[in-house]
Write a structure and sequence with these properties.
The chain is mostly beta strands. The chain is built from 1 helix and 18 strands. The protein has one domain: Porin (Beta Barrel), CATH 2.40.160. It is globular and about 60 Å long.
Length: about 475
């Protein structure tokens, strides 16, 4: 017997809902987004050396959406033009693109594929994400003119409902990035990670237990001029990991999640830049996390605490990070237009504090501790489907370190204010790829992105949610 919320029922609900409005399976859209922003530290420089600036970003693009009963695709292409008022004579032109696809191979299975690639200036990449999606991350020093960034990533997720209580999942992922400071004697950092995992989940009435096992392979390379504070090096590692997770639905809105496991850092190969290095040692690190989540038609919020081992591709080094984060997306009552499924005014935000310790590539000992804090809040106003404005404030604080890594990872303090817009025309999409498949917080998985005509938890930032409520 299949679960009542099977993927096939959801996907048929979407197709049935969109068919009357859109005769064809495909829809083509012109898109545009942009920002006017002011920051008091445009290149994340040390205190006393920071410079403020006003900058503008415009991102024209194209969007293709294609939907059938057993699959949905969307393809998004954007150019990005960035102009600084004081620190750039010419505008920088970069671009990015992405493809997402959702498949229903059978009544019990689903597949989600995603590929993204793009370029940009590191100091201006924040505007591409929403305030409640902000990622706190240790950042390298950025020279005058900005640190040029190029990157790509891809992922594949597969889920199979073996029975009403049991689900099997599998995931593959890969990402690569390159940063270049474009100085006379440039420092180029190239890093890549690829891996996968297999998970098994057993669900009880209000509780679920899951186990995930996987591994990733890292290639971290820094090419610097002779005599640089941090010289050239090439590190390669394998990170096997095992994690157990327990979820509990306290009621229909509140749920809790506790997980724990181990990550084994295994260096391999020789560093051609440092052939006299001592024999590399392995390291075993515990990882643990906890999360309290609220999911309802009036908003979504989470409180999470986590210790994890993750590579930082921007600095080409493995790290152990302790993170505390609060995120929220809540409708703001405004006149009589605060619709349950399509609110016009939404408050968004995240607060995160992180301590990062670098994993020594030779000894696997922890070294060079850094602190990072970020506050990112905003208000979004949906004029109509496909057209919205956002007012946003971001505070970023990063501590430095007195050893040699402090030369490449400075401490800084930065305030940034944004006014953003986003437009899509025509407004109606033929179909929509779900955003949060395979990333449920609740044991009953009711917090997944809505696909049917009556979603349990709508995506407040998706302008098309709740068209039927108008």
């Amino acid at each position: 017997m299949l679960p009542s919320r099977s993927p096939l029922v959801w996907i048929l609900g979407v197709v049935g809902m969109t068919a009357p409005a859109i005769a064809d399976r495909a829809s083509y859209h012109a898109t545009a987004s942009g920002d006017i922003a002011f920051t008091d530290n445009v290149f994340s420089e040390r205190r006393g050396n920071q410079d403020g600036d006003l900058f503008f970003q415009v991102r024209p693009g194209l969007l293709l959406s294609y939907g059938m009963p057993r699959m949905i695709h969307d393809l998004n292409l954007e150019a990005e033009v960035t102009q600084y008022a004081l620190h750039g004579e010419e505008a920088s032109v970069t671009g990015r693109g992405g493809w997402r696809a959702f498949f229903i191979p059978g009544p019990r299975s689903e597949i989600l594929l995603q590929i993204n690639a793009g370029t940009g200036v590191l100091s201006s990449l924040t505007a591409r994400t929403s305030p409640e999606e902000s990622v706190v991350q240790l950042q390298p020093e950025q020279p005058l003119g900005g640190l040029e960034f190029r990157g790509a990533d891809g992922s594949q997720y597969f889920s199979y409902v073996a029975s009403r209580q049991n689900r099997i999942s599998q995931r593959l992922f890969g990402r690569v990035s390159e940063t270049d400071d474009n100085l006379m004697e440039p420092t180029v950092v190239t890093a890549a990670e690829a891996g996968g995992s297999i998970g098994v989940e057993h669900r009880f009435q209000k509780t679920s237990i899951s186990v995930d096992a996987g591994a990733s392979v890292l290639r971290l390379e820094r090419q610097a001029e002779p005599g640089a504070p941090i010289g050239s090096r090439l590190d390669r590692q394998v990170n096997p990991r095992l994690r157990l997770s327990w979820r509990r639905d306290i009621d229909r809105r509140i749920s809790a999640n506790i997980d724990g496991g181990l990550v084994y850092v295994v260096p391999f190969g020789r560093d051609p830049y440092n052939p006299t290095d001592a024999e590399r040692r392995r390291g075993l690190f515990p990882v643990v996390g906890g999360q309290l989540a609220y999911t309802d038609v009036f908003g979504v919020s989470t409180l999470s605490l986590r210790r994890d081992v993750t590579p930082n591709l921007l600095i080409a080094q493995n790290t152990v990070s302790d993170v505390a984060m609060i995120t929220a997306a809540m409708p703001i009552p405004w006149r009589e237009d605060n619709r349950r499924r399509a609110p016009r005014l939404v408050g968004l935000g995240s607060i995160a504090v992180m301590r990062t310790q670098l994993v020594d590539p030779v000894t696997s000992d922890l070294q060079a501790s850094f602190g990072v804090a970020r506050v990112d809040v905003g208000i979004q106003y949906a004029v109509r489907p496909g057209f919205s404005y956002t007012f946003r404030y971001e505070l970023m604080v990063q501590s430095s370190n007195r050893d040699s890594m402090g030369e490449q990872i400075p401490g800084f303090f930065r305030n940034t204010f944004y006014f953003s817009f986003k437009v899509r025309w025509p407004e109606e999409l033929a179909a929509q790829v779900p955003k949060r498949r395979g990333n449920a917080v609740r044991a009953d998985r009711d917090d997944l992105s809505p696909l049917g005509a009556e979603p349990v938890i709508p995506d407040l930032l998706e302008e098309d949610a709740g068209e039927g409520d108008r």
